[in-house]
Amino acid sequence: MPSQEELFDAVDALLEGEPQLPSPAERARLREAAGVTQARLAAALKSTAQTVKNWENGRSEPRPPRLQAYLRLLDGWAAKYPAPTAPVPVTKTSTGRVEQPAEPPPALAPVPVPDVGPATVTAARPATSSHRSVRKAAVAGAADPRFPHGPLAVLDGDGTAYGVDGIVLDCPATTVAQLVEWTMAESGLGAVRLNRAGKDADPLVVLTAAAAVKLGLPERLEGHEERRSLRLAEDHPVVKQITRAKWKLTKRGFGPWARVYRPAKAGQRQCVQLAVLSWDALDSRSWPGVAGMEPAEIARVLGTYARRVITPRGSTAISGLELMTALRPPTRAVKSESTGEWESAYNPGSLGTEPMDPAPPEAPQEHPVAQGWTGGFIDEEAFQWVRPVDLLTDEECLLPYAVGLDMNTAFLAASARLVVGLSAPDHFHRPKFNKKIPGSWLVDLSGIELDPRLPSPFTPTGVRPDGPAWYQTHTVAYAQELGYDIAPIEAFLRRETGAYLDPWHDRLKTAYADTLADLGVTPDLDDRQFLAAMEHHKKVDPAMAAVLAAIKATVKGGIGKLRERPQGRHYRDGERWPALERPTWRPDIRAAVISKARVNMHRKMANTAKATGQYPLGVLSDCVVYASPGPSPLDFLPYTTSGKALPGAFRLGTTPGLAKVEGVQEMAWAVDLMEKGLNPARHIKGGDAVTDEGE
Description:
The protein is of the alpha+beta class. The protein has 20 helices and 25 strands. The strands form 6 sheets. The protein has a 10-stranded mixed β-sheet with strand order 3-4-5-8-7-6-9-12-11-10. A 5-stranded antiparallel β-sheet has the order 15-23-24-16-25. Helix 3 packs across helix 4 (49-57), helix 10 crosses helix 17 and helix 15 (502-518) packs antiparallel against helix 17. The protein is globular and about 70 Å long. The protein starts with a helix and ends in a 12-residue tail after the last helix. Mean pLDDT is 87; it is low at 86-125, 127-133, 135-142 and 688-695.
């Protein structure tokens, strides 16, 4: 029999127990309240973003010593960001009057609401005025108390506004001005800033066609001028109504994406973003199928994107660019040593507040700094190359299949730990090459002779250069990596540097991985399981498949916006255009991303050829096509004797920069295209896969 002392010790151990973590939902709430990304938390705890995600959705629990460190962090956050008190439910009468129950019920009981898809079952929440009721499902983790109803809502014609997590609001507005007032004063919409030095996201209200008509807007933009300019005429009644109510529109006017604002008051922004679905606010290429979804499902799609990426502020390209600034604000508050007052100052690592002209060879030819420049221009673009048909072997032609591989978000992978210039370029003559300095180099790489069955890594066409040309640092560094001496003739280099895109990369990488996981494609799958999951992932959940497409479009579009070209038929070469006035117009950064992505692709092709003797049939941006004995990449990709993917070659997987299947066709089909001078990488998907180099 155990002694009494032994029993007491055992009981004491049970009473003391293991450190108690809050619920998974509360862990996520505390992290988001602190403005910390999963990737940043993972780095602090020497773990991975996927592990942190598993902790926050209850799939796994931390173990010592991370358990104690994680608990200490959560306890600190809990003291700073206490959970809001659960409100007392209310009901709404048929007259719209809000009634408080005599005694609060012990729990929120589900109540039926109109069929709105996956968010059908909702529960009552308190109204903020007699004009509004809130019906909401139980939400995993509380929102920021300033924005209790999430970042956005989709307004339908009956005045119902569908928010995230099943929230349903009643909006009484019958005019755009009333809608803006309601959004600012009563909706509870908005999102917390992504950086402590940044700004909270403006609330977004998306209008269905019925809602637009109810508010006095045309269902579609009418007339030649409105369709051409994608905005309402300045004398339109709605525009006049907004002005009379002392609200303003930005320079782009009232178009598919409109910002209605007043000057900031007491440091608080007064701005509402509106998106009109029937005016093609959601481009079907970036948001496939979303415009035709039910309002609640649209809210689910946009709300997921808003939480994982950013509240949409226009096209995915615009949102990608805005995300860069939101994560790296140009200024921060600092206390003056002389006055003791807080003042705005440059935020280290950002692009600052002033636009910066590029070096002449980095600029588009129509740019003012390029006028009169005769020294040539940089041409850092993605690959568009097809192998000459006379370099095909009989063995390749007799193989049955052509298999296309696509690199997951290749530009995103290239932006990781990418050092770019933060200051204006300085001009140098005969400098010594240094791969750590970002900039543009005039170098003669025409003497470098490589295997003609591979594209030249130095040109987007894959054709060997024929003399001196301008290259971004990564392209020149690759020539040096291949063993060649580099003797630059000139260079435009930047003295101040930094990994400007790192937080952008981290947030989008996590968003991409989390959304793939929602579609059943997780990092723990082996290669066969990964390929099987990718075959059907878009059918698992069309809403999340649309989010995934939008994330990919955000990457490419955001990089493309760094070199936005002039638009409009009245533009003349040498004139400045609006994009040049923003600090994020940086063609040198775009060139760095594309250069690194192209070099990464070539390195994988070269390593694959070295290991297997296989060479690509064609390359288009981030897609490469190989002849294969079978219909799967497993039939030709190199693996080690232990079954692992060969390091340095193409690997399958979910991470940005790894590969997935783009398409499979018969080899005879590919040979026929190549004989016509066409690129099989353009058509391997089974349609006309238009090249997209980030523009």
